[in-house]
Amino acid sequence: MTDAAALAEIHAASFRNPRPWSADEIAAILSSKGAFLLTGPQSFLIGRAIADEAELLTLAVAPDLRRRGSGARLLAAFLTESARLGAATAFLEVAADNEPALALYRRNGFREAGLRRGYYRDAPGEALDAIVMRRPIQAVSHGI
Asked: Which residue among 43, 64, 80, 86 is the one 20 to 30 A from 35 at the CA level?
């Protein structure tokens, strides 16, 4: 699945706040330096590895497929691919109110490393904080 329009549909079904990414935005990200795409059934992850650091840019799973391991499988593949590309650490930002995502990342070794106030815009004039999470990649274990 590399069709940006199909990815945008999954992203739109997965995210209301913050605003979902358009097909053009997804295509632009995928064409940027170090970007890579991992896919599963009605799910995908876009990451980027530059130098010794990897960033998880988005992880989208269609709502009717959640809590079945798709996100965990994509996250494990992200860590493996990032290590293959030479990254030693990984980081991401997640909306502070996204408890399911926070739980997934914590179960997989990510720890809170900072806060970006007002990072996501949900409605005009309103903003959501983002929690920055980080983990070493050299400690990748698929049993976490």
From this structure: 64
CA atoms within 13 A on the CB side of 115: 6
CA distance 27 to 21: 10
Contact 64, 53 (CB under 8 A): no
Write out pLDDT tens, residues 27-53.
Answer: 999 999 999 999 988 899 999 999 999
Residue 17 to residue 138: CA distance in whole angstroms = 32
Phi and psi, residue 33, nearest 5°:
-60, 130
pTM metric for this prediction: 0.86
